[in-house]
From TrEMBL:
Domain of life of the source: Bacteria
Originating organism: Micromonospora chersina
InterPro entries: Amidohydro-rel, Metal-dep_hydrolase_composite, Metal_Hydrolase, Metallo-dep_Hydrolase, OTAase-like
Pfam (any one): Amidohydro_1
Name used for this protein in its record: Imidazolonepropionase
Lineage: Bacteria, Bacillati, Actinomycetota, Actinomycetes, Micromonosporales
Domain named Amidohydrolase-related: residues: 79-413
UniProt GO molecular function: hydrolase activity, acting on carbon-nitrogen (but not peptide) bonds
């Protein structure tokens, strides 16, 4: 028991978390709402009371009376959820029609300032964790560290630094070019020394880089294996950008942790490869599928012509038991502002996912994929108090995710 009068939850509960009658707790939040999705489901918790202490969830109760001394926040009929997790964003890109040109005109300091704005946009939408899969000059790492000191100013960032790519390869302009096995190993080591959370490797070309082709490989199996070995030696997961089938095959063979996009793009369409999807499932590799566009923007013809094929593969991956999460690629163009993720969840439902699976894909499964599953993505004791409240029932209508009524980050209400 704190002599200064600050009782901790452990004191309140005592051993075995049994409430102790009459013990006054100071500094605790007691959040009431109409219902809650706990990150796993399958059903909503009715009339929950979520106790928050020192930035973490202390307890989730089904109703009951708040502990004496706790500050009560009543969210009315809203549904409370874990804050959303976007497994793939780019805070350096501004969501304009020319995001690459835009950053070329900015100094690092100017760009960092834009990224602070992008981070606030995420948080206001209830996106409380983002995995940044490609910055310039380790700016997302800098912003991550800033936000550790000031969590109410943005989501928690898991940063990759500049993506590792071949000379003139996809996103080379972000400064991460590295060639050959030795070059790739050195690039991974350099990122580990800078304190990144994940290694991003471009296994194939990409849509936003002229001179590269999404269906063609950039790195061969040897470079990818070297990247994985070196990253795992440093305790870091590897997220591999792969569109074309050969790139996906190489990524699976190398034992990467997540495959980004995984679109099975060919020169003129989309491939169907149940055998390769089965191999992804067997290997336990998570697919971070690139879904989510705001209304009013038609995808480029190359993408719209392939959309049915992409979605058929997403369905097939789910049916094969692949863990599919949502990585929006926020920032890469006007259809993808930094708060686009709820549209990605809605697209999973349109694609045939049950709403509970779509909600997991942006909460608990995404947390697991991003290696923060022990403290993010669930409403459970010990988890970070990153919370989102929405009007309506997202299990009945996934678009309710956009009707945000409150956001908490590390226990502080920010909206
Ligand atoms: Zn990306």
């Amino acid at each position: 028991m704190a002599a200064a009068g600050r009782a901790r939850l452990a004191d309140y509960h005592g051993v075995g978390r049994k409430p102790v009658d009459g013990v006054v707790v100071v500094g605790m939040l007691a959040i009431r709402s109409g219902a809650a999705f706990d990150g796993v489901g399958p059903a909503l918790v009715e009339r929950p009371l979520v106790l928050v202490d020192e930035g973490r969830i202390a307890e989730v109760r089904a109703g009951g009376v708040p502990p004496p001394g706790a500050e009560v926040i009543d969210l009315g009929g809203a549904t409370l959820l874990p804050g959303l997790i976007d497994a793939h964003v780019h805070l350096v890109f501004d969501g304009s029609a020319d995001p690459v040109g835009a950053i070329e005109r900015l100094s690092d300091e100017e760009l960092l300032d834009r990224m602070r704005t992008a981070a606030r946009t995420c948080l206001a939408a209830g996106i409380t964790t983002v995995r940044d899969l490609g910055d310039r000059a380790y700016l997302a790492v800098r912003l991550r560290d800033e936000l550790v000191a000031e969590p109410a100013a943005g989501p928690e960032i898991l940063a990759a630094g500049p993506p590792v790519t071949t000379s003139q390869g996809h996103c080379w302009f972000l400064g991460g070019a590295a060639d050959g096995v030795d070059g790739v190993r050195a690039a991974v080591r350099a990122r580990a020394e800078r304190g990144v959370d994940v290694i991003k490797v471009m296994a194939t070309g990409g849509e936003m880089t002229p001179g590269t082709r999404s269906h063609e490989v950039q790195y061969g199996p040897d470079e990818l294996r070297a990247a994985v070995e070196e990253a795992h030696r440093h305790g870091l997961p590897v997220a591999v950008h792969a569109h074309g089938v050969a790139g996906i095959e190489n990524a699976v063979a190398a034992g990467v942790d997540t495959i980004e996009h995984c679109s099975f793009m060919t020169v003129d369409g989309v491939d169907s490869r149940p055998d390769l999807i089965a191999a992804i499932a067997r290997a336990g590799i998570v697919v971070s599928t690139t879904l989510g566009v705001v209304p009013g923007f038609a995808p480029p013809p190359r993408i719209s012509a392939r959309l049915d094929g992409f979605l058929a593969n997403v369905r097939q991956m789910r049916d094969a038991g692949v863990t599919v999460v949502c990585g929006s690629d926020a920032g890469i163009g006007p259809p993808k502002p930094h708060d686009v993720l709820p549209y990605g969840a809605a697209m999973l439902v349109e694609c045939g996912f049950p709403p509970v699976a779509a909600l997991r894909a942006v909460t608990s499964s995404a947390a697991w994929a991003c290696r923060v599953g022990e403290r993010k993505g669930r409403l459970a004791p010990g988890f970070d108090a990153d919370l989102l409240a929405v009007d309506g029932d997202p299990l009945a209508d996934i678009t309710a995710l956009r009707a945000v009524t409150a956001v908490f980050r590390a226990g502080s209400r920010v909206r």
